[in-house]
């Protein structure tokens, strides 16, 4: 997995969490018209809630210079990570990967994904998972290009009851994280 040369990924400091939430909301804003007002507001509330969770989580940010340009959450396997999924996913799961629109196509998402893969592999896991949907075709293309494969066993319906939230996983034994 190649990474951007001028992007550094690290743990978010507690004082950066609000910035990371704002960045993530801005990254997802392009989907607002398709979500509709009620679903969009619920989505923003979910973003904030995920960053405030107390369960073990890596809260990662990507920097270019002194500016935050990306963020992601990485959860170890845990029961109840997705309230609509009764089964526990047995490997780490990326949530809310977001890149500020001004920093897209510069390797920021790939750098965040590489760091997530590195941490999962370091933890002894063979896979790294994430969920997305067909509403986010650019994200799906990126994940597939990096080697993620569908894992429909962990699919579920979003709160709107029409959007399928699709599970993907990356085999870590073949990934290069440097």
UniProtKB/TrEMBL annotation:
- Segments spanning the bilayer are none
In terms of CDD domains, this protein maps to: NAT_SF
| Source organism, top-level taxon | Bacteria
Q: Which PROSITE patterns match?
A: GNAT (PS51186)
Q: What UniProt keywords are attached to this protein's entry?
A: Acyltransferase, Transferase
Ranges for domain N-acetyltransferase: 7-171
InterPro entries to which the protein is assigned, alphabetical: Acyl_CoA_acyltransferase, Bact_Acetyltransf, GNAT_dom
Q: Which PANTHER family match?
A: AMINOALKYLPHOSPHONATE N-ACETYLTRANSFERASE-RELATED, AMINOALKYLPHOSPHONATE N-ACETYLTRANSFERASE-RELATED-RELATED
Q: What is this protein called?
A: GNAT family N-acetyltransferase
Lineage start: Bacteria, Bacillati, Bacillota, Bacilli, Bacillales
């Amino acid at each position: 997995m190649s990474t951007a040369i001028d992007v550094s990924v690290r743990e978010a400091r507690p004082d950066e969490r609000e910035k990371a939430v704002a960045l993530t909301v801005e990254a997802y804003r392009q989907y607002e018209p398709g979500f509709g007002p009620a679903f969009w507001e619920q989505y923003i509330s979910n973003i904030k809630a995920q960053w405030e969770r107390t369960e073990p989580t890596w809260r990662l940010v990507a920097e270019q210079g002194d500016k935050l340009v990306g963020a992601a959450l990485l959860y170890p396997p845990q029961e109840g990570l997705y309230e609509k999924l009764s089964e526990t996913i047995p490997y780490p799961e990326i949530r809310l990967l977001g890149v500020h629109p001004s920093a897209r196509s510069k390797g920021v998402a790939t750098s965040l994904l590489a760091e997530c893969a590195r941490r999962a592999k370091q933890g002894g896991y063979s896979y790294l998972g994430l969920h997305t949907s067909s509403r986010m075709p650019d994200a799906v293309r990126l994940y597939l290009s990096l080697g993620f494969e569908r894992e429909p066993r962990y699919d579920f319906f979003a709160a709107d009851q029409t959007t399928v939230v699709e599970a993907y996983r990356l085999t870590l034994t073949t990934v290069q994280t440097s």
